[in-house]
Write a structure and sequence with these properties.
The complex is a heterodimer of chains A (339) and B (289).
Chain A: E1 4-13, E2 16-26, E3 31-35, H1 42-50, E4 57-62, E5 65-66, H2 72-75, E6 78-80, H3 92-102, H4 107-120, H5 136-148, E7 154-158, H6 166-183, E8 186-191, H7 194-200, E9 203-208, E10 211-216, H8 218-223, H9 228-233, E11 238-244, E12 250-252, E13 258-262, E14 268-270, E15 277-286, E16 290-297, E17 300-307, E18 319-323, E19 330-332
Parallel strand pairs in A: 3-8, 3-9, 6-7, 7-8
Antiparallel strand pairs in A: 1-2, 1-4, 4-5, 9-10, 11-12, 11-13, 13-19, 14-18, 15-16, 15-18, 16-17
Chain B: H1 3-9, H2 12-38, E1 41-44, E2 48-54, H3 57-64, H4 66-98, H5 102-117, H6 120-131, H7 136-143, H8 155-179, H9 183-191, H10 196-207, H11 209-224, H12 228-233, H13 241-250, H14 255-288
Antiparallel strand pairs in B: 1-2
Classes of the chains: A alpha+beta (339), B mainly alpha (289).
Chain lengths: 339, 289
Amino acid sequence: MAFVQLEGLGKRYGEIDAVVATHLSVEKGEFVSLLGPSGCGKTTTLQMIAGFVEVTCGRILLDGRDITHAKPASRGLGVVFQSYALFPHMTVKDNVAFGLRMRKVPAAELQQRVTRVLKLVRLDQHAERYPRELSGGQRQRVALARALVIEPPVLLLDEPLSNLDANLREEMQFEIRRIQREVGITTLMVTHDQSEALSISDRVVVMQAGRITQIDAPYTLYEHPRTEFISGFVGKANLLPGERDSAGVVQVRSGGELTLSLRPEKIDLRERDHGRLQGKIASRFFLGSQWLYGVSTTLGDISVVRRNDGSTPLNEGTAVGLDWDATLLRVLSVDEVSA
Amino acid sequence: MSTLAAVRQGRQGYLLSAPALALYVSLLAIPLLLTLVLSFNVFDYSSGINSDAYTLSHYSSLLGDPYFYEIFLRTMWISGLTTLLCVVIGVPEAYILSRMGAPWRSIFLILILTPLLISVVVRAFGWSLLLGADGLVNQTLQAFGGSPMKLLYTPFAVVIALVHVMLPFMIIPVWTSLQKLDPAAEQAAMSLGASHFTVMRQVVLPQIMPGLLSGTLIVFGLAASSFAIPGLLGGRRLKMVATLIYDQYLSELNWPMGAAIAVALLLLNLLIMLSWNRMIEGRYKKSLG
């Protein structure tokens, strides 16, 4: 049996279903992200697990124990909030020690555990500071330390990186993953940022309008998005019409009944009259390590990403041929829920 | 350099603040100074105030007479009790208010402010109708077989009426500091194993101390110098310092004595409020910035 198990978990607010009967199993030590646009029910799901939101239907099992209606205090889960929710009137040390004081941990052990966890998040130099004297990234790490020090069975992260600027966010992603690996703690993270979910999770759960639409490892999710919504939400995708030929192989064909997804980086640019599709470069954006071309074709505008390998980029207006490996085309199912 | 800095450095700043400054000087500083001078003037019941002669006799009789001690002591404990009751009632009320939804919050906020919208005389007579020997409270007591109690013209009546009107002055600053609280901090404390009571005591209360401090200062200051409520609900016998000053000025016509008592009240109030401020602020300034 899985370590954390959601069985038909649901939440209604009046007439609105925030979360519809959700099933999810998380294994011990796993890092799972709940990914979706705002209002998809991912935060509500996390808050139900934490115990801040009353459950309408279904059960939450933690290591076989039913905690559906337990008080937040008795669940013993570690929670990191989007706003960090540090206690502004306490020093870093006291913030971290709070959970241990509540558990009446003896002073010597408390001291030792606080020191150890502050070292883990690399804040041992700042123990006596107050939260307002820290940077955003440091506050984030205090919140993490405060949640980890009680050695919770599960760590819940609610949009932990959304208040950080881009550079710091990337750094903290890896930091969170490092700490999670080191402690080996089962982690559930809520995020609306697909790159964040892809880069640090073992599995990603895509939610949409209160339902789970796909659960997969990041690579599988990216390479095999199930629906049109997911292919556009997780990375960029070109949507092309297509059909199966007599041999059952999927081909791009205008007027085809299938919707196919083709990632921009999987398309090669050839000289005109070569390749599978002809077009003209309509726009060109420089992204540093890459060039992003917009190519207008008879099948509509197609995005193509090319590595910036030092060669001269193509100018707007250049006629080009597009080519791709047909096995990289993905057939999408029609969205069950429209976003 | 910003415009503001330029204004600060030049004479413009003084010019701009001149109207406010003139108002303060003419309406606060000068009367205070005159009162201070008056309190040293010699007074004689037959010849009145002699503004050329100075004496310390008013202050020495103030310090030597247990009658004055009693009134000062009463004023301080009544104000202290009023402040305490305002904290006990006002802080939970402000907390509940801050958790209320959209329409109810403004409705209750206005309700809380209503005592301030009613004239103090009307409000005081309202209380005397309720608390009088033949008032509603005693009528109810008697209807249930109890014996009537003396409520009006007691410290009880004064304290209850003071709390009634002072509550908004406690609730508003506390409510303001509650607005700055991150509700997630309470959730965080709960997830770390704290009970509701512990969350209140260790997370919410320390963070609203600045609001609580200003609330207690306002309430204590206003209560200690209140005049109309003790005058109307305390009666002739239960005097507080402000009513005593009034008597000295208008019944005894001993203006210098009245001025001396007023100066003493001002100094005592300042002493209590400053030490209270220092005590609380000293504890929380470092952490709350």
